[in-house]
Amino acid sequence: MKEGQILKRIIKIIGIVLVALIIGMLTYLGDYYHADQTAHDALISDDQVNVRKEGNLTIFTPTAGQDETGFIFYPGGKVEDIAYAPLMRSLAEQGYSAVIVGMPFNLAVFNANGADKVLETMPEIEQWIMVGHSLGGAMAADYLAEHEDKVDGLALLGAYPNQSLAQSSHPVLSLYGSEDQIIDQQGFGEGWNKMPVNASYHEIAGGNHSGFGNYGAQAGDGTAAISSAEQQAITVAKIMEIWKGN
């Protein structure tokens, strides 16, 4: 076989491999958990909560006037952002603005500094608390670690920090379900050593990993003994214990 023919064959093989990789990547990124009907219903404004979209932000504000504290939410990996609308709406019903940051390809790692846009969009809020589920929680923790001067606390939902928060002066809350079979237990245990000494922890009895959102059962997760609505109500109550009135 001539040298030119060999080169053409090599180029052809490389092209086929690249196309296969691109197709595989697009298939992976396009396969994600979709929000259920309850989540879609939570996007409808009423006399208690106003819901609006601004670019990749879904913003929930109480109609009766908002507190000076607000919540910025980073969704879990490969979960549609609006799947967390019921949880954020519940925070708004308590009198707080709550904002879901939509992520490219539903992966917070591609927009770890997405909170910056929230701060720019809503300068009237004086204190922001980061909240994140799973991968979104890890990225929210990174944001706090790198922007102590911009945000004022963190709530981790079925998540743990990558970077050390041991020196953080802000309140940090960790919530996790007793039936969570998704979270990396080794990483979760190691994450405790990266938390501030005054961090708060709460295991939600009967809760699992996917119960923080409304996107159905996540493959590999444990079976919850409580509903998603119950798990989210406990989540909101625990968040309020720390930040209500602060």
From TrEMBL:
The chain crosses the membrane at residues 12-30. GO terms for molecular function: hydrolase activity. Gene3D superfamilies: alpha/beta hydrolase. Keywords: Membrane, Transmembrane, Transmembrane helix. It holds the Pfam family Abhydrolase_5. Residues 71-232 form the Alpha/beta hydrolase fold-5 domain. This is Alpha/beta hydrolase fold-5 domain-containing protein.
